[in-house]
Amino acid sequence: MRRALALLAFGGALAAPAYGDQHGDALAWLHKMASAAQKLNYTGTFTYQSGGNSETSRITHLVDAAGEQEKLEVLDGSPREVVRSNDEVKCFLPDDKLVIVEKRGRYKAFPALLPASVSSLGEYYLIRVGDVSRVAGFDSQLILLEPKDALRYGRHLWAEINSGLILKARTVNERNETIEQFAFTQLQINVPINKEALKPRFGAESTAWRIHNAQASQSLSAGGGWLFKAQLPGFRKSAGMKRQASQGGGTETTHFIFTDGLSSISLFIEPLADRKAEQATYSVGAINVYKRATDNHLLTVLGEVPMATLMRLGDGMELRKK
After folding, report:
1. Nearest 5°: CA angle at 80, between 290 and 35?
2. Domain residues for 259?
3. Could you tell me if 64 and 189 lie in one domain?
4. Which of 91, 40, 43 lies closest to 68 in space, CA to CA?
5. Is 6 part of any domain?
6. 27 in a domain, yes or no?
7. Rounded CA gap, 1 and 309, in Å?
8. Which of 44-48, 115-119, 285-289 shows the highest mean pLDDT?
9. Most CB atoms closer than 10 Å: which of 13, 82, 111, 268?
10. Are 170 and 32 found together in one domain?
11. Mean pLDDT across the chain, nearest whole number?
12. Number of separate domains in the chain
């Protein structure tokens, strides 16, 4: 999906509190931010923080006649790289000598966190303009997205004033506590990008590497035999697929993705067979996880949303009776 928007000037509204049409000004900023992440060349280093954990990554993004190309390198701990060419994504895991290849129509990674169309976000989020401050040496405009219900978390987004590129993004809970944060510490915008910088560092062509193609074995336009009895206002099913658990066979997993454009939920369904499973809730960083067994299947629901949202979706699932 592609979007283009030319928002060249906001005059004094950039440097002063916005009066009048706050929603309209904030929505215009979101359009500018969504376009900037896709249309601009940039390279920089950012940190990710969640709880007591932090991680540093480097991103390089190039737009040319061939489309979008991007490389994300994790600089801490075990080396990992994600290399994208338009909608083809390759994840390099050198410790495991594994490359995971997948087609993703809308790959979302910082700073490209906004959906193609931001207009509908106002239905479930109160969008308003905040203060101007400095982030990574750039003047930035804060845009706040505050949920209108208890089904989703809030977002604070800082955009570079001239380009609109997101410099910092914070997810907050109902108590306005920070759950996770991305923030550039060093950034260059609209600079020439050497294509060599986009190539993976690891030689996956070696026979020592395994290549796993994570393509869906079957696309599901409907529920794939499952009934969704609980509705989550604002969340639509954006994808449904069946995947083989491994290249050598194994059980087939059904995977659904729900999104409101900003927050996403993944639902995995797999046969239990002879295994036993108990209902469980836990968190991994900013991601909440809910598991339950039903109709001899294990349901795993996860996402950066409140636990109650995941439980509402998971508890409303049942196998369609034949």
Report:
1. 80
2. 216-319
3. yes
4. 40
5. no
6. yes
7. 28
8. 44-48
9. 111
10. yes
11. 86
12. 2
- Residue range 235-259: mean pLDDT, rounded: 78
From CA 166, how far away is CA 172, in angstroms rounded? 17
Question: Is residue 136 within 8 Å of 47, Cβ to Cβ?
Answer: no
Give domain status of residue 210, yes or no.
no
Q: What is the DSSP string of 58-100?
A: EEEEEEETTEEEEEEEE-SSS-EEEEEETTEEEEEEGGGTEEE
Q: What residue type is assigned to position 118 of the chain?
A: V
Q: Do 180 and 227 fall into the same domain? A: no
Single out the residue of 263, 266, 110, 267 nearest to residue 187, CA to CA: 110
CATH number of the structural domain spanning residue 237: 3.30.200.100
Q: For residue range 29-60, list pLDDT tens digits in order.
A: 999 999 999 999 999 999 999 988 999 999 99
Q: Are 45 and 110 in contact (CB under 8 A)?
A: no
Tell me how far CA of residue 157 lies from CA of 5, 25, 48, 68, 72, in angstroms.
Answer: 19, 14, 14, 23, 20
Specify the residue for token string 């990710």.
48
DSSP 322: -
| Residue at 190 is within a domain | yes
* pLDDT exceeds cutoff 50 at 6: no
List of E strands, 98-247: 98-103, 125-135, 138-147, 154-160, 166-172, 178-189, 210-213, 218-219, 226-228, 236-246
Give the strand pairing for 98-103 and 210-213. parallel
Question: Backbone phi, then psi, for 173, in 5-degree steps?
Answer: -90, -170
Closest alpha carbon to 262 in 231, 239, 284, 235: 235
Instruction: Please indicate, yes or no, whether residues 24 and 121 belong to a single structural domain of this protein.
Output: yes
Alpha carbons 142 and 155: distance in angstroms, whole number? 10
